[in-house]
Amino acid sequence: MTDLRISPASEPVRARPHRRDQFITMAHGAGGKASRRLVEDVFLPRLADPVLHRLEDAARLTAGDTRLAFTTDAFVVRPLRFPGGSIGELALNGTANDLAVSGAQPLAVAAAFILEEGLPTDELAAEADAMSRAAAAAGVCVVAADTKVVERGRADGMYITTSGIGVQQVAGLGADAARPGDAVICSGPIGDHGTAIMLARGELDLVAEVRSDTRCLWPLVAALCAAAPGGVHVMRDATRGGVATVVNELAASSGVTVVLDEAAIPVRPAVRGACELLGIDPLYVANEGTFVAIVAADAAATALMALRAVPGGQQAQVIGEVTDEQPGLVLMSSLTGGHRIVDMLVGDPLPRIC
Ligand code: MG
Fold first, then answer.
1. Beta-strand pair 66-75/158-168
2. Is the separation of the CB atoms in 102 and 133 below 8 Å?
3. Which DSSP string corresponds to 1-33?
4. How far is the centre of ligand 1, averaged over its atoms, from the C-alpha of 191 (Å)?
5. How much distance in Å is there from the Cα of 29 to the middle of ligand 1?
6. For 112-158, how does the pLDDT look when each residue is reduced to its tens digit (9 = 90+)?
7. How far is the centre of ligand 1, averaged over its atoms, from the C-alpha of 295 (Å)?
8. 97 C-alpha to center of ligand 1: Å?
9. Residues that place a CB less than 5 A from ion ligand 1
10. SS3 277
11. How many CB atoms lie within 10 A of CB 68?
């Protein structure tokens, strides 16, 4: 029998006491403060596994001598198709990326499709094709699948859940591994995905050329980790809640301060313009092909060069640094010279973007 163990056995994340939310709201699906509260209130007390309690992108498991990573993700994006991608592609890349930023090469994915009665079969076939193309690009096999159907009006066409397994290739990573002096790197322009979805809904009187950044991150992660062996401390894909939320999670897990440099954060002009009209800060907008890496200061230049040599990483930037001023805090040094606190996402300004 295979010896399946969990690793590493470090301290679980402690739930903070707070008043329970009585009902589920859209904010609980946004990946920000309400999502965190729901996890701490409902799941952590009931699902006691210390690996789950680490709240990482993927669980790291050991089977005999093989070090694996395992994760799952659900996709309820509306509309199903949008500039740059669609739900089938997103469902494959999203799970592959949670494995990748855990230092694991994605290996296999299982997909469950929840279909609404009346959905054109051609639309389902198109999404199966999109998933297949994304799997080929990511070097992943879709090895198991399931379908369920719900009555007309009980789902928006289709929802997809994917689970994935990968082989750990990078040691020493962890959300708690950022250290004062480290550099914070962003792999590319932020806010593309969430902005593309909002524009695709056609609810805004706005036309802009913005495409989702959905892509498999493994080639970027592999290049980064090969260029800076031992120098990469933390990686996280900046999905729901955007870079602001992800950096807050990492600052809290590592007990460090992150100071971001507003001028260094890459944002495409079209995304900046659309976000200004929507009254949303791109720092909170979801990405599906962009990640944050916290690396040793002396590895930052090499890491940046490696990322910029890979498609999707050409605009990678050092966007901040780790300090020990106030543990758990994220600060923004602004264009005007001052500092402001950057909180996690509160509420849900862009519902159902993934
Ligand atoms: Mg993730």
1. antiparallel
2. no
3. ---EEE----PPPPPPP-PPPSS--GGGGSSSH
4. 15
5. 14
6. 999 999 999 999 999 999 999 999 999 999 999 999 999 999 999 99
7. 18
8. 7
9. 57, 98, 237
10. helix
11. 19
Cβ-based neighbour number of residue 60 at 10 Å: 22
> Phi and psi of 12, rounded to 5°?
-70, 160
CA of 152 to the centre of ligand 1 (A): 32
CA–CA dist 352, 319 (Å, integer)? 27
Q: Which residue has tokens 């990492």?
A: 250
pLDDT in tens, 37-79: 999 899 988 987 888 877 889 999 998 999 999 999 999 999 9
Query: Which residues 6+ apart lie within 8 Å of 185 measured at CB?
Result: 292, 293, 294, 295, 300, 303, 304, 307, 316, 317, 318, 319
- Residue 82 carries which side chain, given as an amino acid letter? F
**What's the gap in Å between 100 CA and the centre of ligand 1?**
9
Query: 157 CA to middle of ligand 1, Å?
Result: 25
